[in-house]
Amino acid sequence: MLRIRTLLNQLSTRLILGAFAFLLALTGAVMLVVRDSLQFAAQDTGAQGLAETNVNDILQATLLTIGYFAVLAIIGVIIASRALTNPIQRLVEGTRSIAAGDLNVRIPVKSNDELGVLADSFNKMADTLQTRNSDLVKANKSLSEREAHLRLITDVTTDAIYDWNIVAGKTVWNDGYYKLFGYPSDGIHEHQWWRDRIHPEDRERTITRLDAALQAREEYLSYEFRYRRADGSYAHVIDRGFIFYAEDGTPLREVGAMIDVTDRVILTEAQAQAALEERQRLARELHDSVTQSLYSLTLLAEASRRTAAAGDVDKVVGNIARLGETAQQALKEMRLLVYELRPLALEQAGLAEALQHRLDAVEKRAGVEAQLRVSFDAELPPHIENGLYRIAQEALNNSLKHAEATKVFVALKAEARHVELEIVDNGKGFNMGAIQDQGGLGMVSIRERVEALHGEYSITSKPNEGTQIWVRAPLDPAA
Asked: Do domains 158-260 and 349-479 have the same CATH topology?
């Protein structure tokens, strides 16, 4: 720009100097004519006065002529200068406007000469730039929206998202890393920081898996390990990431997320422990009840055989009756155990139908008159349903195996904040003092399950007057 302006100034200056040079040359020519006239007049003294007068007239006319042509020359120079410099000046100003970001500027095309061609080329260039700029604006906008969406996902997720620069050995974390593990949010760590916080028992296995993935140029990697929090405890995490490589196979970076699955692992372990405890309980039941009943059947059968061989018919008849009673008791216990192994009705139909299914499948088949009354139709939280079902199951098992009840009544009702379960039988009952001192009959199991529900319960029983069990649990333990 500065060079163009300098050239324009130099051109204008040269035009003006040329005009003045022409005027000077013209003036010199006139002066020569005047000089010759004076010399001629001086030779004739008689005409000297007249010559001086003519010379003065000639000089005045000459000066006027010179002035007139001088003005014309200057005006011509100015017009010519403007005709040449204005288009170039407009090009300069247009270029400056485009450089400043104004792509709407255009230059009028007033001639077909070089300056006109240059102006037309300038306008075409501006059109092209404006079109490309519009496309570009539509594209950083689209990219900006995508970046905003990704940033939003990163901000709202609870996972620890990371970007590991493998070449530099640096890892950048999002805020989820500090929310999950409690470390200061300084943003960037050496890769060794991550390695040092893997549980010592998992570290070698985890690092070996990572190194093997990099050597094999795997693009996706997923593994599970324990990761140390800032407070020293360990979280169970699943680490999933995508690995990017250079053309020669050199690993460049890994982008992924660490997901805290501690609650899931704890729940799985708790379920596994509960299943183990349930299997152990069933094993004890099999050993204490069914196995003993079958052993008793074996003894009675052998005694009956010997008695029959001795010809004691009365004892044989008595032994056969005891055989029948023992077999019936073993059948009841087997039905209980088989039903406990498959409580599918609870998952499929809910607590009320699961209890009805239990009464139909076990109590009624055993000849016990069973009745269920339900005073609500709303769905209960799964942990409430499971806990109350297990309590009812324990109470009904005790009634069937030990109380020798012929009638049992189950009531289930729910209020705004609580649910109640009541089980009453007409069995032989028991001494409350003895049970409280010695435990047994599943009372410990019932108490533990009620405590797990943050509820309350009561057991009322007297010898030969039946038993009543009442449980009340809050629908919201925090309330």
From this structure: no
CA distance 399 to 467: 8
CA distance 250 to 71: 80
State how far the Cα of 339 lies from the Cα of 345, in Å rounded to an integer: 10
- List the domain boundaries for the chain: 2-99, 158-260, 266-342, 349-479
Q: What is the pLDDT along the chain (479 residues), one digit of tens a residue?
A: 445 445 445 555 555 555 555 555 555 555 555 555 555 544 554 445 555 556 566 666 666 666 666 666 666 656 655 555 666 677 677 677 777 777 677 777 666 766 677 777 777 777 777 777 777 767 665 556 555 555 655 555 667 888 899 999 998 888 888 888 888 766 678 888 899 999 999 999 999 999 999 999 999 999 999 999 999 999 999 999 999 999 899 999 999 889 888 887 877 777 677 767 777 777 676 666 667 777 777 777 777 777 777 777 777 778 788 777 777 777 777 666 656 655 556 666 788 888 998 888 888 888 889 999 999 877 788 888 888 988 998 899 888 878 888 999 999 998 888 999 999 999 998 887 766 555 555 678 888 889 988 999 999 998 988 999 999 999 876 55
**Among the residues of 100-189, which ranges form H helices?**
114-156, 175-181
113: left (phi over 0), alpha (psi -120 to 50) or beta: beta
- The SS3 of residue 407 is strand
User: Which residues make Cβ contacts (< 8 Å) with residue 316, sequence separation at least 6?
Assistant: 304, 307, 308
Contact yes or no for 197/239 (Cβ under 8 A): no
Q: What angle do CA 321, 326, 327 make, to 5 degrees?
A: 95
Please, are residues 364 and 332 in contact by the beta-carbon 8 Å criterion? Answer: no
Q: At what angle do helices 2-42 and 48-99 cross, to 10 degrees?
A: 180
The 3 state secondary structure assigned to 79-108 is: HHHHHHHHHHHHHHHHHHHHHCCCCCCCCC
Helices (H), 157-219: 175-181, 191-196, 200-215
Superfamily classification of domain 158-260: PAS domain (3.30.450.20)
- What are the percentages of helix, strand and coil residues in the chain, rounded to 5? 65, 15, 20
Give me the phi and psi of 260, to 5 degrees please. -80, 115
Q: Would you say domain 349-479 falls under CATH 3.40.190.10?
A: no
Residue 247, amino acid: E
Query: Any idea of the CA torsion for 368, 374, 377, 380, to the nearest 10 degrees?
Result: -80
